[in-house]
Amino acid sequence: MQDERVDVIVVGAGPAGAAAALELARAGLEVVVIERGAYPGSKNVMGGIIYRQPTEQLIPEFWNEAPLERAMIEQRFMMLTETDSIGGVFRTEQFAQEPHNAYTVMRGDWDQWFAGKAEEEGAFVIPQMVVGDLIWRDGRIDGVNTGGDEGDLHADVVVIADGANSLLAQKAGLHDGWSPKDQALISKELIRLSREQINERFNVRDGVGVAMEIFGQSTAGLLGYGFIYTNDETISIGTGAMLQDLIDSGLNTNDILNDFKAHPSIAPLIEGGETIEYTAHLIPEGGWKTLPTLYADGALLVGDAAGLVNPLNREGSNFAMISGKLAAQTIIEAKEAGDFSAAQLSRYRELLSDSFVLKDLHKIRNLTDFAHQRPHLFNEVPELLTNVAREYLTVDSVPKKDKQKKMMNMILSQMPPRRALDDAINGLRAFFG
Amino acid sequence: MTVVQDGIRDRAGLERKLAITSFNVDPGRAHIRIIDHDVCLQCEFQQCINCCPAACYTPQSDGRVIFSYEGCVECGTCRIVCNEFHNVEWTYPSGGFGVQYRFG
Fold first, then answer.
1. A217 CA to chain B: closest CA distance, Å?
2. Alpha helices in A172-316 (DSSP H)
3. In whole angstroms, what is the distance from residue B43 CA to residue B64 CA?
4. What is the ipTM of this complex?
5. Domains contained in chain A, number
6. Range of the domain at A157
7. Where a domain ends, among A284, A302, A323?
């Protein structure tokens, strides 16, 4: 590839990189996507749910051909104590109708398909190739080196889409590395069950499914959550907690996952299933407060590499795809202007600021701090709520008035009004931004 | 004999799970390396051991830590948690090598 030059090099063929490549190729730019895995998706993990509306902005009516598992029609929230659980359910038949709201997907299938769409538009995807370094010329980024003298490839812009662990973002000087407070570690198992077993256990039918977010003992009481998503013939079950909390607690994510799987409220859902894959991955959850610089002379930062994740609403793949799309739009404008300087490429930041991506990150900017300052939300609160519910539902010939008094005392002793008020006020602030 | 404190409760079970995950191990190169094994002796918590989701870090009876790259899922946790001593040299495996998720 000596002295070769293209319009744009995209590093990483995940949703952010493939979305950028797709849009750039559509506009007629010459794009090379470099992927270090054996195939796109082979290094990638998510829960994982793809949202229809943002995806449709890239590929209209993708659901007619994309590798999808089930359309999500039901959302369950749960809190776990050591032995008990309490929660709520929302279900709508609207989400069972086209256009659906969200789907479970397998990233191995999805990423290959999505990168394939970029190839169909004319992008050139090279798998099994690692970008070792950026090439600099006159103080600006001018391409990448993939090893050795022959490994130089030049471009007007490098789109850095190398994921949660972005080494290139640091090499580009866009940020100085993540701290354990900014990253969550998830571990996940894919468990095979028959389609009929899944339908019965989750009260669904073929093609539609359930997403569950579970707090409390699903993370050993650490800030984070466990999740269960129904796929066609498998269940995804995982747990995620902040790295700093794993350090402080001395716990291992897989041990937490095992306890979660063994919980009496969870175990029957996966009983008899065979684990066919174990995965682990980081999620950059530092959000607004750790947002790196998103552009440099000759480079843009997209997706997980830029830390574009909304942990509250479980969104990341859509942030990745939309950031890739907006990066492409920026580059197309830059090409027209014949200017690839940081000043020109700063347009990307404007576009992201006008979109839900940075608006949502800004909205929840205080949420992690809020939750971190209140470990009781993940421990005492599930305990209290299950205790109150048990008391309410236990029929023991105690007059209901006395029972109410007892329940009130339980609440007041564990949740003094001042603390409840503080949680409520600050919680509302953190949620509603 | 020194009792080795292992932060992973079910190391054997985790290794069994990882045996199902696909790897294309590069026989020629370890992509991650502990830079100086003696530095680990100064590290009080050795959080690499319990934080690694693939049990790649094993405590030794002499207080040092051994890293084995073969079953590494390339998550980057050790790169981030070794934040006091910066004693982990972390690179990606060569193209096509390393963990190979089929489903993800």
1. 17
2. 195-201, 243-249, 253-262, 267-270
3. 9
4. 0.96
5. 3
6. 4-67+106-178+289-354
7. A284
